[in-house]
Amino acid sequence: MTTPSGIATRPTATTAADDDEPRRRSRSKAPYLFVGPAALLFLAFSLVPIVVAIGLAFQETATLGDGTWVGTDNFERLGSDPLFLTSLRNTLIFTVGTVPTAMVIGLALAVALNRPLPGRAVLRALFFVPMVAAGVVVGVIMSWIFNTDYGVANNLLGVVGLDRVPWLTSPQWAMFTLILVVVWTRVGFCMVIYLGALQSIPNELKEAAAIDGASRWQRFWSVTWPLLRPTTSILLILNVVFSLQAFDVIYVMTGGGPGFSTTVLIQYVFRAAFIDARMGYAAALGLVLVAILLLFTLLRQRATRKAEEVL
Amino acid sequence: MSRRGFLALSGISLAGALAACAGESTSTTHLRLSSWNIPTDLETYQRIADEFVADHPGTSVSVEVTTGQFHQWFITRLAADLAPDIIRITPQQIGRYAANGSLVDLSGAIPADYADDYSEPFWAIGARENGVFGIFQHTDTFITFYHRDVMKQIGVTPPSSLDEAWRWDEFLQIAAEVKKVTGRYAFGFGWSGTQTAYRWLPIVYQNGGAFLGEDGQTPSMDTDEAIEALEFGRRWYADELVSTSNMCKSGGGDVSRNMFLTGQIGMMLNNPEPITQLDEEMPDQWGTTYMIRNTDEASDLGGNALAVTKSSKHPGLAAELVAYITSREKMVDFCHEGNWLPARASLDAADIDYAAHTDTMQQFIDQGARIPLSLVKAESGQYFSSLNTVFADYADLCFLGELSPSDASAQMMDAMRSVTAG
Fold first, then answer.
1. A45 touching B, CB under 8 A?
2. pLDDT at residue number A63
3. Chain A contacts of B71, Cβ < 8 Å?
4. Chain B closest CA to A188's CA: distance in Å?
5. A20 near B CB under 8 A
6. Which residue has the higher pLDDT, B42 or A67?
């Protein structure tokens, strides 16, 4: 500034800066004060337990007291533990069964509800309700609905002349029933997230495609779907995390049975820790679960990045 | 309010809240007793504890609720040294904690003749070679419930004494007839989730078998008697006498009770819990007889003991309170209020003065007296919580027909050995 007023104000400005120094210093501390409590809680309830769990995975630990260092024994035992392999397989089936299904139905609902419809707000809320219901409550209610002998599901099948289905009592059906229930709880969540993403896509893009002669399907596949890719990526990771952590509904509805047909990895972690009191082995199982999740997330991120590069 | 004022107030509130969390009065010796969330029992415990407090100036007792999955709840509190002073604990849960030093020896606080009024099996629940780690307060066992109308239709008069109790073959014949009347299934078994799988173990003992050997630690489900018992269980489902929705791991609570109430079965092997609902929904239409048997007699070991935890800062006083609650007089009071079966051998249904069904309650008490010591030692042993889950896994597979009884026995033995090997 070369204006006289600018020259005249320079000393004043310097004084003001001196006066602001304590406030600036205080402001520089403010972010730490805001972040501090959350960081402290994260440290106490997440980071420290994670570090302790990693340490535990290399120990043989009874219920209480100090453990004995056993190196990689717990991890070596995993390979020859049939229940671990069964639960790993069941986890894969459960995840593959729940994640794509919930996302596809969620997307379909979002597309359907992303237009003026009578009672649209009510429908959205209704689809979302199962997501906020407690897993144990859902499990108990579904155990009744899918009871082979006095459940509503089989009574309805009876009304239309169909045979009873052993929803939860047959090893061949139980996993399917659990997937059905979990998809029902998850669809509303996927719908809400997709709905938000759909509403952020500018109409001009679709209109331009329509003017160029694109059909409805082409508009969706070539315009909408690519723009939903970041949302799909986040939803995919979140849904995989949810599926790997699905515990309460399975615990209440089948207890991992019949036999081992619905025993998933997270259930086996709980069993090893609190039923068998093998904390070290449970920690090793938990680390395997984390490793699977990390690997999946990394692969997914890499795939998304490649897709964006192609675009 | 200024920012500093707000922070100061928050600090004071936090300190107050933390002090409140400590839950301990500074002027009195305070004890915490934790029980299952059964409102009547919680009230009775508090009333009895208040009487104890009246006799012990300077003390106070609060009754709390044991929440969630027991082992998860108890292990985490023990690890934090925040477990309640006194814990209500089942025979199947007590073994691990008696063995690993989580419970306190009560020997010094109980009269020398205290064990005299207990049967050997019931005293063995808490007694170990190195002390007494719990006192059995009340029991709970299985007998047979039946629809009066169904029995009338098939022309069967249920046994009226233990010596006449149905043997397996006889029971299966009757069950086949019952199935014809109901048009669905014959009977149900009172499991309510994986953690209650052990309720089926008496069937093994009824055939002269055993889940664990005499030492209470060596797996013994590979004997002919045990395999025959598994075959017997398999027949329940193969002949469609029992629904596959009524299995060890079935969810949705007591499936047999619901099927009995809806007339889909004519009999159920169960504990006294369904009585209230049966009275409400089908009064005078049901009756009871004794538990089935084969070469031997056995029935479910239900009920609870009271134990003092290592977290207690006043173990002597806590042990005194346990002795007070399990005294003859207070046991009568507790069982009367909660409709429980007394653990003391000298008490019968007339002493308890039940509000209803005195005869049925006496049947339960008589049946409870036939629980064998070997079954008690097995179920209250160090590894039982894990072994119970193993049993649930393989019994489920066997009953469903996924494994033959001999294969189920072999695989169950392998899994049991891996548990008992530590």
1. no
2. 62
3. 274-275, 277
4. 25
5. no
6. B42
> Which residue among A148, A256, A277 sits closest to B96, beta carbon to beta carbon?
A277
Q: Of the ranges A5-19, A58-72, B364-378, which one carries the lowest mean pLDDT score?
A: A5-19
Q: What is the ipTM of this complex?
A: 0.80
| pLDDT of residue B27 exceeding 80 | no
Strand ranges for A231-272 from DSSP E: none
Chain B contact set for A168 (CB, 8 A): 245, 250-251
Q: Where are the domains of chain A?
A: 4-56, 82-310
List the single residue in B with minimal CA-CA distance to A262.
Answer: B249
Three-state SS annotation for B356-403: CCHHHHHHHHHHHCCCCHHHHHHHCCCCHHHHHHHHHHHHHHHHHCCC
Fold of the B27-140+302-364 domain: D-Maltodextrin-Binding Protein; domain 2 (3.40.190)
Predicted model pTM: 0.85
CATH class of the A82-310 domain in this structure: mainly alpha
- Nearest-Cα distance to chain A for B110, in Å, is 28
Contact indicator for B386, A275 with CB cutoff of 8 Å = yes
pLDDT band at residue B62 using 50, 70 and 90 as cut-offs? very high
Whether A27 has a pLDDT exceeding 80, the answer reads no
Which chain A residues are closer than 8 Å to B419 by Cβ? 276
Of B194, B244, B397, the CB nearest to A169: B244
Whole-number pLDDT of residue A11: 46
- The mean per-residue pLDDT over the stretch A76-96 comes to 93
**Is A274–B255 a contact, with Cβ atoms under 8 angstroms apart?**
no
Q: Edge-to-edge strand order for the sheet containing B135-140?
A: B59-65, B29-35, B86-89, B302-308, B135-140, B341-342
pLDDT digits (tens, 9 = 90+) for B255-278: 999 999 999 999 999 999 999 999
**In CATH terms, is domain B143-300+383-420 a member of 3.40.190.10?**
yes
In contact, B288 and B279? CB cutoff 8 Å: no
- Bridge partners (DSSP) listed for residue B303: B139
DSSP B104: -
Q: Pick the residue of A45, A63, A141, A142 with the most B CBs within 10 A to test the interface with B by mutation.
A: A63
pLDDT at B229 over 80: yes
Residue A275 and residue B385: Cβ atoms within 8 Å? yes
CA distance A2 to chain B (A): 42
B271: Cβ contacts below 8 Å, ≥ 6 apart: B140, B141, B142, B190, B300, B302, B364
Position of tokens 């207990």?
B118
Q: Which of A65, A148, A259 sits opposite B245 (nearest CB)?
A: A148
Q: Are B266 and B286 in contact (CB under 8 A)?
A: no
Mean per-residue pLDDT over chain A, rounded? 87
